[in-house]
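Standup, Tuesday
Yesterday: got the pipeline producing C-alpha cells again.
Today: sanity-check two examples.
Blockers: none.

Example 1:
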Amino acid sequence: MPSYTRRRALTLLGAASAGLAGCLSRDTTSGDLGHVTGEWAVDGSEPGRTRSVSEILAEPEAVWTTELDDVRATRTPSMVDERLYVPADAVSDRARHRFQLHALATETGEERWRASLRSDPNASPAVTSERVIVSAQRELEAGRLVGFERRDGDERWLYDIDARVTASPMVDGGTVYLPDWSGSVHALSVADGSVQWSRQLGDDESSRTFSKPVAVHDEALFAGARSGRTGVLAVDAATGNERWARSTAPVIAGPVVDDDLVVVQAESVLTAFEPNGTERWTFNVVDDYWETPLAMDDEHIYVSTVDTLYAITRDGERGWEYDLSERSGGPPTVTSDEVLISEDGTLTALARTDGEPRWSLETDGNRDVVAVPDAVFMRESGGRITARSPE
C-alpha cells in the first residue's frame, strides 16, 4: 500500500524545481482567465456531493486575486456560468450591512453585484439558472433560506425556520432542500420559495439532528444524523416519505452518493450502503477525526483525518494514504486523474491511482477548493479570492 508524507512530497517536488519554480510562491498578479467552463453549483459540486470534477486540471498558476471591500472573511463560493458567488462577513465602519453576497466575474474577479444578507450565511450557496440560494442563521436556534435573482442580486423570496440551521442548501431540479437541527428537512420551490414539503424525517418519530447538507440522487434524498437517533435516512425527494433508515454512530461527514454507493463517515468509521439501504462495508480510519467533507470518484472514497488523507477503494479496502501536516488539512477535491488537498498553506495534487505527489503550490491558508475544468478558485485570508489556471 503506497504511503506518502508531506515532507517526502516536497522533497520529490524539489527535485523538479526547474518545473515548479513559479508555483511555490504567492502570485498577486491581475489577469484574465478568459472563457471558464463547467460549474460548481452547490456544496460538494453536484447533488451527490462527491466533490468530483470529470475533466483534467493541469498544474495551475495564479491569474487574479480579488480583495472584497470591507470584508474580513468569506464562505466557500459556488460557480455557474462564469460567475462566482461568494457569501461574506463584512464588518467595518464603512460596510452598510454585516453579511453580504458578492457576484464576481470568473474572467477577472471583477464584482458584478453585491446583495445584503441580514443573517450569518452557511458555507456555499446553491445556484441555478435563475436563483442564488443562501442558507443562514438568524440566531443560534433560528435559520433562514433566501433566494436571490442570479442576474442582478435582487431578493426574490425568504423562508424562516424556527430551528438551528448550519447546512448549506442543496438543489436538484426545481427544488431546494435544507435540513435543520430539529430533524426536519424543508423542500421549497427554487423559483418562488413556496413550500413543497416540510417534515421531520423518520417514521419512528425519534429526535434527530441534521447539521450537514443532504445529498440527492435518483429521486431519493439522503441525510445523516449527528445526534439523537443517529444514522442515515433515505426519503423520497418528492414527498419526504421514508424509504429506509440505518443506525450508525453520529454522522460527521456525508452522505456522498453516486450510482451504486451511499457513503457516510460516522465518527471514525466509514460506512457504505447500496441505494436500497443494504450495508456493503465499513472501514475504520482509526486516527483522530474531524468533520471534513468526503470526496468520491469511480475508484476511491477520500477521507481526511487530523493527519492523514485515506483513499479507500469502492470495495472498502485500504488503497493508499498520504500524511498531512497535523490539524491543517482541508477537504479533498477530485479531478479526472488527481486529488487536490489543501494543507498548511499549500495546495498539493496527488495521483488518484497511488497518492504520488504531482505538483504543489503555496496558498494563503487552508481553504476549500472550488474546481472546474479551466480553473481553481480558493478563498484566502480576509476577503481575498484567488483564481488559478493552467498556462
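Example 2:
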Amino acid sequence: MWFLKVTRKEFLELLGKESATTIKTNELLSIQNLNRKRLAKGSILLVWEFEPKVNPPCLVITPDSELKDFLAWATTYLPSFKPFTAFFKTINLSLFKIYNSYSNSPNFNSYEDVCAGMVISEALTQIPLSANPNVITPTACKSTVSYCYIQAICRGISIEGIEEIIRRWKTVRSITNQPKRSLSVTEISILGRTLENLILERPLAKNRLGFEENLYKACKQIRENGKCSAEIWNEITSGNEKLNSIPDLIKGTIEDRIQIFNRAIQYLKSFNKISNAQSSFVCGYFASLIKPGSLEHFSLIKSQLSSFPTSLVWYGFLTGLNKNNMILAIFDNLGRRVLRDLMHNRELVSTPSSDISFDELHMRFSSGEVKYNFKKNYTNSLQVELVPNIFSIIRIIDKEVSKGEDKYKNEKFVSNFKELGHQINKLNEIYSILRTESQLDRPDIKTKGKAERTKHKQLTLL
C-alpha cells in the first residue's frame, strides 16, 4: 500500500488532474512508516494498493475527529462523486489501523453449512407461514443480522468490533424506518456468540449467559457425534426426565416423528423452568431430529415462533451441524448463493462495492436529507457498508418516486380500462351481427319462425 498526505484543496486538484502528473514518488509513504506519521487537522491520507499511476486512490483516511466533517465537505465540493463513499472508502485513522490487521479472506473453520443455515432460517422468519420459501432471495438473506455476524466472525473481528457492527446494523434500520423484525438482536446474539466460539475457538466472554456454555458444548457434540450427550442435555433441560427422554423417542417413520415432536412441543410450552433461549434451542433440536440434515419441516416450527422465538434459526443452525446436511441445495440452491457471497475476499484497500457507507448515510439523515437520489446496486434496496468490508442491505421506498409511480399507474389503469370497455362494446356489436346472420341462414330457424307466427294468429282469433 502507498499513502499520500494532502490537504482537502490538494485533493480537489488531484481529482481534476492525472495522478501521474501530480504525485511525486518521494512524497509517498509506505505502510512501515505510516505509524510514525500523524494527521494534522484538515489533512487526509490517500491510499493506493499499488504505487499510483493514473488511477484514483481507493481509500481516504481522515483524522479521528474529522470523519463526519470531511464527508459533509465532500458532499458540498465533490457533487460529481455522489455518494462519496460509493467511490472512495472513507474511514478515520484509528479504524484503519484496526481493520488493516484483520483477514481479507474469510475463515469458516469448516462451519460453512452452519452459516448458510443460520442466515436462511432467519430469513424464513420474515415471510408469512403460508408463503413459498422459494420467494426468499439472496438480497433478503443479506439483510439479516446473522449475515452481519458471520461476515465479522469469519474475518476474526474482535468481540468489541462485532458489537459495534451490530449496533450500526440496528441504527441503519432505525433511521431508515425499516419494518420491525420478528426477532430481536438480543435473541439472535446468543446464536451469534455460539457460532463465534465454534469458528474462532475463543474462550467464553465474561458477558455470556450461564447456559450459553452448555449450548456451545452441545453444538460441538452434535458436530462430532451427531447428537448431544445425555449429560449436557440434562443440563440444558434442567434435569427434566420427560424432556430428557424425547430425543430417543423421535424415531420410526417421518409421520411418527412429527407426532412425537408435536406432543413434545405442547409439553415444552408448559415447562417454565428454563429460559426462552433454552426452550428455543430444545425446540430447534427436536425439529432437527425429524429428518436430519434437512429444513423440510421448517413450517412445524414457524407456527411456534411466538412461544420459541429463535427456534427456527436454531433449526437451521443445528441442521447445518449435521455432516450429511442438504443446506446448500435447499430452496433452489439458495444456500450456495449465500455462501458464495460470504466467501468473497474483500481487500481493505480496494474500490467500494456498496452504495454508501454507514457514516455518510448517518450524516445525510442527521442533516435532514433523506432522498435516495443516486445510483444504487439494486432498484429498491440499498447496500450499506457498516464498517470496512462488512455490509448489510435495507429496503428503500422513495416517497417522491413512489407517489409519481402510483399516479402514473392509476392514470394508465383508467386509460386501459376505458379502452377495454370500448373494445368489448365493439365485440358485442360484431357478435350480435354474426348471430343474427347465422340464424337467418338456418332452415330450421325459418320453419320454426313461420310455425310460431301461424300459432300466434290462431291464438289471436280465439
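Quick observation on example 2: DSSP finds 21 helices and eight strands in the chain. The longest helix spans residues 399-440.
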